[in-house]
Amino acid sequence: MSAVLNAETQASAASAANKAFVEDYLEAISGKPKPVESLQRFVGPEDADLIDHINIHEAAFPSYELVGEDIIAEGDKVVVRFRVRGTHLGTYMGLAPTGRRIDAPGIIIYRIADGKIVEHWLQVDAMTVMQQLGLAG
After folding, report:
1. Could you give the CA distance from residue 109 to residue 50 in angstroms, rounded to a whole number?
2. In this predicted model, what pLDDT tens digit does every residue of 45-89 receive, in sequence order?
């Protein structure tokens, strides 16, 4: 019984540490410039796609906000239900800057290993973004 409780305590501690790590990451990037050096503090080379994704969106929506509304951790995964907010000031998917604001919901799951994000799964309400940019009715 003691071994089971010890394992549960360790798993709970790991979940809490991973949640705190993602909270620190969000604090470091939300509403601020996102230079690659800063991103590499949090994102491992295994998830270069995440850095590419951030760079593309940072160019189109400089210093965009990623506001966590719910953060849930279990083992090596952390789920964030968020809102992304920004102003369209750079080319995005071929669309010239409109100066319009976006505010869209999304969800992302991060897998954490060795103190870094090593994998992610992301869904953003793209229709809301397109409507706010004037591309959909």
Report:
1. 12
2. 999 999 999 999 999 999 999 999 999 999 999 999 999 999 999
Number of Cβ within 10 Å of residue 137's Cβ equals 5
110-135 pLDDT per residue, tens: 999 999 999 999 999 999 999 999 98
d(CA 41, CA 29): 11
C-alpha–C-alpha distance, residues 29 and 86, integer Å: 13
pTM of the model: 0.90
Q: In this structure, which long-range contacts are made by residues 122-128, counting pairs with CB atoms below 8 Å and at least 24 apart in sequence?
A: 122/53, 124/84, 128/102, 128/103, 128/104
CATH: 3.40.50.2300, 3.10.450.50, 3.20.20.210, 3.40.50.720. Which one for 2-132?
Answer: 3.10.450.50
